[in-house]
Amino acid sequence: MALRRKVRSEGEELPLFDDTREENVKDGKVVFRQQSLDGDRGNVALLLFLYMLQGIPLGLAGAVPMLLQNKGVLYKDQALFSLVGWPFSIKLLWAPIVDSVFSERFGRRKTWLVSSQYLIGVFMILLSYRVETWISDPKGPHTILLTCLFFALNFLAATQDIAVDGWALTMLKRENVGLASTCNSVGQTAGYFLGYVVFIALESADFCNSYLRSEPQTEGILTLSNFLYYVGGIFLLFTTLVALLKREAADDVNDGQDQGIAATYRQLLHIMRLPAIRTLALILLTCKVSFCACDAITGLKLIEAGVPRERFAMIALFLVPSVGVNHLVNI
Question: Which residues form a coiled coil (predicted)?
Answer without folding.
Answer: none
